[in-house]
């Protein structure tokens, strides 16, 4: 039953992620589309794999808030795209989605998870500018918006199997103390 719930939740986020963009596709956009959906799906899946349900809900809140804020800004600002397709250029929804997943991974689990995701998110943003769907300011705004929102809703993950080693220095002793839990 537990795995069925995980699959259902992951499916829901894949479905929700598909609404982060609705513009006409050109060749060369597939990598950006994959990163836009893939980075957040991977981020949520890592939380579920670790059975970090508190973290998963932080991810879900960040995704929902980012989606709402991005769409609200698009329909408020109404900036024309470089290719003239429509007036929903600012901020980049692809970038905000990809950077939301990357930011969650970095804030929750550290740079070893976040750095590869940030590289992928950066490539998503580059692709959006290169294919004339966005200006750089749109991509940067999407990245800053998503990163800020995720920062506000994410607590650092504390692994229960962690070892802590600290120096001990006082008037009578010099040494180290170790603490671990399992």
Automatic annotation (TrEMBL):
Keyword Cytoplasm recorded: no
Gene3D superfamilies: Phosphatidic acid phosphatase type 2/haloperoxidase
A single cellular component GO annotation: membrane
Molecular functions per Gene Ontology: phosphatidate phosphatase activity
Phosphatidic acid phosphatase type 2/haloperoxidase domain boundaries: 54-154
Localisation: Membrane
GO terms classed as biological process: phospholipid dephosphorylation; phospholipid metabolic process
Annotated signal peptide: 1-22
SUPFAM superfamilies: Acid phosphatase/Vanadium-dependent haloperoxidase (SSF48317)
Membrane protein topology class: Multi-pass membrane protein
Protein keywords: Membrane, Signal, Transmembrane, Transmembrane helix
Pfam families tied to this protein: PAP2 (PF01569)
Protein family (similarity comment): Belongs to the PA-phosphatase related phosphoesterase family.
Record's protein name: Phosphatase PAP2 family protein
């Amino acid at each position: 039953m537990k795995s069925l719930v995980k699959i259902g939740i992951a499916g829901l986020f894949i479905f929700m992620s598909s609404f982060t963009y609705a513009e006409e596709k050109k060749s060369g956009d597939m990598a950006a589309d994959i990163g836009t959906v893939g980075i957040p799906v991977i981020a949520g899946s890592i939380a579920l794999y670790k059975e970090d349900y508190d973290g998963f809900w932080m991810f879900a809140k960040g995704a929902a808030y980012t989606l709402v804020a991005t769409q609200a800004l698009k329909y408020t600002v109404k900036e024309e795209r470089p290719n003239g397709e429509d007036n929903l250029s600012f901020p980049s929804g692809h970038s905000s989605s990809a950077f939301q997943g990357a930011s969650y991974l970095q804030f929750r689990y550290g740079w070893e998870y976040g750095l590869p995701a940030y590289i992928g998110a950066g490539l998503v943003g580059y692709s959006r500018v290169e294919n004339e769907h966005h200006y750089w300011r749109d991509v940067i705004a999407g990245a800053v918006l998503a990163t800020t929102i995720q920062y506000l809703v994410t607590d650092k993950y504390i692994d229960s199997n962690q070892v802590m080693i600290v120096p001990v220095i006082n008037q009578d002793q010099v040494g180290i103390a170790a603490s671990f839990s399992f």
